[in-house]
Amino acid sequence: MPNVVHLAERPLYGFAQVDHLLGLPAGTASRWIEGYERAGKTYDPVIRPAPTGELIANWGEFVETRLLAEYRDAGVPVLNMRPAIERLREELQTPYPLASAQMWLHVEGKELVRAIEEKVGLERRLRLVEVRTGQMLGWSRSVESFLKSLEWSDGDDTSDGDPTVVRLRPESDIDQVVIDPLRGFGEPVVRGVRTEVIAELMRAGESTSGIADTYELDQASVEAALRFELRRAG
Predict the structure, then answer these.
(1) 189 contact partners, CB below 8 Å, separation of at least 6
(2) What is the CA radius of gyration of the chain?
(3) Which of 4, 64, 196, 234 has its CA 20 to 30 A from that of 18?
């Protein structure tokens, strides 16, 4: 019987492709996932426990990079999140704590994250949990944006019965555009049609209504694909 590769372990993207898909400056995904060296000093990765030499990101690493992308304008190096992520990896016993159902879907997740952030002294601008009025804990605005972008399985297709992220939105405010590792070669799609194909047809002179008719899409989906590609190009 062949070995079944868990979805999170499925290799998908070169680092430059991750940057392109998530609108990150060139080289960002490589630094976050694999670490880097500068002026003779080595900087450990924030996503992988240690550098592996593997230049392809798997689905779990891509999902985690999607979250870190929400913090790229925080004014604090995202690499400073490494101690908190290491502790989460240990506590949840998973290589992908930022893509874990245990963290996001279980009641105890928020309290666990808050305790770890306090313990490692994570900078406030990088924290996933914030204290709100009345000492209630809530996810940060960046986390809420990230969580809105995720779609989960029901857990029946995993050995531990926990849900797993099966697709996500690269831009949480563009609902129609999703990235599914099992469709469109993992590229952004609207109802199975790659957004870059729609953009190419538009550049070739096709009308939005013509593209919609060709692929049996509604007008809103075509416009969403074009909006996403325009933002990605910018």
Answers:
(1) 177, 178, 179, 180, 183, 195
(2) 19
(3) 4
